[in-house]
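Re-run with default settings, no changes from the original entry. Doing this only to confirm the output is reproducible before filing.
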Amino acid sequence: MASTVPEIGDLQGTEKLASGYSALRRDGNRKKLGPFAARGMAPAFGFASTVEDLAKFASWQFRLLETGQYEILQANTLREMQRMHYLDPGWQKSWGLGFMVFREEGKTFVGHGGFCPGYQSDLLIQLDDKIATIAIANAVIPIWHYTARAHEIVAPAIEAAKDRPDEGNAIPVNFGKYIGTYNSFPFSGEFQVIPWKGALAVVRFPIDNPMTVLRRLKHIEGDTFRHIREGDWLGAEYVFEVDAQGRVVHMVIDKSPLPRVR
């Protein structure tokens, strides 16, 4: 974990640390925050890290629990840390030693969040499936929404791939040119065209739970698709406009052109 430091103040003012921003203010903007030093509270919230290093941290836990060997800690010590030790009076939240522990849909999750002025992080680990989701942000946001939603979306796909490694869901090669981001201002933020289960789908952002707005697309002909609604009946038409070089420049939804931004 070479990119992790125990005192975030050591990175302030360097290219290794993004500027931190506040929560949304009443005017809808965020305030850029100045340098922050954890000082005496550094062991609690002074660490700064990266998604890659936190992924290594999660992988180390999976490895240690699987091998049962000694690697920095004894495997039994880590298991004890991830076991529930106390419950809040409302019987809603439980903790291990240094880890939050909770149950959801029959599975046990452990994790820990990080917070200091201008920065937040969350590490969520499902020990049985050996899947971890990680989110970090340089602003005050409900970061745990992103790790929970990421697990809901990604974990089933990973499990399906493990069970059927030879059954790919690659999209047709010629569909790749449509994948990208399209600007829907002023009606909303952006639409993202993504590969999804061997075809294409459209997701609107920003959104806490992308699955609630994901629209599967069915190829009709040429550059024309239709939204597959519940019951497999066809909804809105999606037409991709291309320039003379064959590059996609707009996604047209019900006659409304959305310019491609990347």
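The chain has a mean pLDDT of 90. The chain has two domains: 8-163, 173-259.
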